[in-house]
Design brief:
Layout lengths: L1 E7 L5 H14 L3 E6 L4 H7 L5 H10 L1 E4 L13 H8 L4 E7 L12 E7 L9 E2 L4 H14 L9 E2 L5 H17 L4 E6 L8 H12 L6 E6 H10 L6 E4 L1 H14 L9 E3 L4 E3 L18 H14 L2 H17 L19 H14 L2
Parallel strand pairs: 1-2, 1-3, 3-12, 5-10, 8-9, 8-10
Antiparallel strand pairs: 4-5, 4-11, 6-7, 11-12
Bound molecules: nicotinamide-adenine-dinucleotide.
Nicotinamide-adenine-dinucleotide (NAD) binds next to loops.
Length: about 350
């Protein structure tokens, strides 16, 4: 059987880490039929948009996509195509596993946390009122009438909608993921003591959903306490579920705990479609230098293997990557101690080393 997968190489370091990952995935013995399509600033001129319709169509048809990072140029006039992809395809769950691999220079050992972040609501909804506009003035007037509050006339606003539907969907996703992956606890993160009608709603829905999964332990934490607990005692957490903004921040914090962006994979998942991509961006300063660590992208490919049901192959790939990291020889600059920077290898050499391990494990 051959899996048809949409492949978006991205830009910056994207094409290099994507190529390294494609080679490694093919070396597992699983057969892929790649549907290569492009998105981002590079296609803007040709198609009049950085996210052409045929890219969306390809993902809708294949249901599975592997994507390299794409640059969002500052002040270019287009919003992040990453945000647009998640919205257009209803990829409401962002899944970010953060796991310690022996050999990675990191602040903490024995961390194995999965952050489940809501992807469609909260302060990322894009509902904003710019300072000084008639719409902002109208909102200030409404707030004075309905809440009796005097908001400063020179204020700008970003709204934070959190729905019962969106909360139920993401918390159920987190519990189902925990059950399917033999994880024992879900921690919901919020600031319900202050934002009663948004985070408070998220928390009350999370408590309700938790009752549907009596086999999984449930707890909740206020987000500020959560950041401190994660730094001090990350081992106490298993699956974390959070609204968009807290999930975004906590997933980077967890990535930092286990050694940084070079080893932080991710997935954006909806009811029908799934898109796998590393947490890191396009790191333009390393473009074309054969320097970036491809492991975050390879681990995203591994998540894709798990998603399509190739669990044994995913396990073999994880072991191959872990062995290369543990040996510490064929790793990129970010996984080398300061004194050994000169011995760091490049992106494609990491792929060669992982492929060698895969062949040895057959
Ligand atoms: P970035 O993740 O691209 O880079 C930050 C720094 O992290 C780099 O300078 C580098 O030192 C390090 N780094 C990142 N990936 C690495 C890797 N694979 N190996 C080794 N080191 C690595 O973040 P940024 O500079 O804030 O963003 C650059 C661009 O990427 C922006 O346009 C941003 O919008 C975009 N971006 C895209 C995605 C995505 O496509 N999903 C995600 C985040 C950022």
């Amino acid at each position: 059987m051959s899996y048809r997968v949409t492949l978006i190489p991205g830009d910056g370091i994207g094409p290099e880490v994507t190529e390294a990952t494609r080679r490694v995935l093919e070396a597992t013995g699983v057969s892929f039929n790649w549907d290569v399509v492009h998105a981002g600033a590079g296609v803007q001129e040709k198609y009049g948009t950085p996210l052409p319709e045929h890219v969306l169509q390809s993902i809708r048809k294949n249901r599975v996509a592997l994507k390299g990072p794409v640059t969002t140029p500052v002040g270019s006039g287009f919003r992040s195509i990453n945000v647009a992809l998640r919205k257009e395809l209803e990829l409401y769950a962002c899944l970010r596993p953060c796991k310690s691999y022996p050999g990675v220079p990191s602040a903490r050992k024995d961390v194995d946390i999965v952050v489940v972040r809501e992807n469609t609501e909260d302060l990322y909804s894009g509902i904003e009122f710019e300072k000084g506009t008639p719409q902002a003035a109208e909102l200030i007037k409404l707030l004075a009438e309905t809440h009796g509050v005097a908001v400063r006339a020179d204020s700008g606003f970003s709204l934070k909608p959190i729905s019962e539907t969106g909360s139920r969907r993401i918390v159920r996703f987190a519990f189902s993921y925990a059950r399917a992956n033999k994880r024992s606890k879900v921690t919901a993160v919020h600031k319900a003591n202050i934002m009663k009608f948004s985070d408070g709603l998220f928390l009350s829905v999370a408590r309700e959903v938790a009752r549907e999964y009596p086999d999984i332990e449930f707890e909740d934490r206020i987000v500020d306490n959560m950041t401190m607990q994660l730094v001090k005692k990350p081992q106490q957490f298993d699956v974390i579920v959070a609204p968009n903004l807290y999930g975004d921040i906590l997933s980077d914090l967890c990535a930092g705990l286990v050694g940084g962006l070079g080893v932080a994979p991710g997935a954006n998942i909806g009811d029908r479609l799934a898109l796998f991509e590393p947490t890191h961006g396009s790191a333009p300063k390393y473009k074309g230098l054969n320097k970036a660590n491809p492991m975050a992208m390879m681990l995203s490919g591994l998540m894709m293997l798990q998603h399509v049901g190739e669990k044994d192959t995913a396990w073999r790939l994880e072991k191959a990557i872990a062995d290369v990291i543990a040996e510490g020889k064929n790793v990129t600059y970010d996984l080398k101690p300061d004194a050994e920077q000169a011995q760091a290898v490049g992106t494609s050499e990491v792929a060669d080393a992982v492929i060698k391990k895969l062949r040895e494990s057959k």
